[in-house]
């Protein structure tokens, strides 16, 4: 079972989640710090993470990982989109994305009319 350590930025994870956590850290670094990786390496990492996520039951440990690693959370959300939509995306970001898409579509319609 996972629990918070004395340091709030550290969490204790069950052994079964440690490979997922290690790959999540690597994905986060690739996404946020623009580390060099080939397309094949990136795809392999995402595939492996997808497999680990598919096997991981939703519990406190997985929830902590999803909150700690936004890139992992996005991958999880993509895997579960049919069931839950954008349930892990911050509401403001989702709303702003929808408003921007609506404005773009309106602009395109207006352009075609002129």
Number of strands: 2
Instruction: List the strand order in the largest sheet.
Output: 1-2
Distance between the termini: 62 Å
Order of helices and strands: EEHHHHHH
Strand content: under 5%
Notes on the structure:
With 114 residues, the protein is mostly helical. It folds into 2 domains: 3-79, no CATH class; 88-114. Helices cover 69% and strands 4% of the residues. It contains 6 helices and 2 strands; from the N terminus they run ββαααααα. It has helices at residues 18-33, 39-55, 60-68, 70-79, 81-84, 91-113; strands at residues 3-4, 11-12. The protein has a two-stranded antiparallel sheet with strand order 1-2. A hairpin with a 6-residue loop joins β1 and β2 (11-12). The chain is elongated. The model is unreliable at 1-8 (pLDDT under 50). Keywords: Coiled coil. Residues 20-55 form a coiled coil.
Topology at a glance:
Layout lengths: L2 E2 L6 E2 L5 H16 L5 H17 L4 H9 L1 H10 L1 H4 L6 H23 L1
Antiparallel strand pairs: 1-2
Helix pairs in contact: 1-2, 2-4, 3-4
List keywords for this structure.
69% helix; 6 helices; two-stranded antiparallel ribbon; elongated; coiled coil; disordered N terminus; 114 residues
């Amino acid at each position: 079972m996972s629990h918070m350590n004395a340091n709030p930025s550290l969490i204790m994870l069950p052994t079964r989640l440690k490979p997922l956590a290690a790959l999540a850290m690597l994905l986060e670094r690739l996404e946020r710090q623009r580390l060099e990786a080939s397309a094949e390496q990136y795809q392999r990492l995402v595939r492996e993470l997808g497999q680990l996520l598919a096997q991981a039951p939703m519990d406190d440990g997985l929830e902590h990982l999803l909150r700690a690693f936004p890139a992992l959370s996005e991958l999880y959300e993509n895997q579960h989109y049919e069931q839950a939509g954008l349930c892990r995306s911050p509401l403001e970001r989702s709303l702003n994305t929808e408003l921007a898409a609506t404005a773009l579509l309106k602009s395109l319609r207006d352009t075609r009319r002129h």
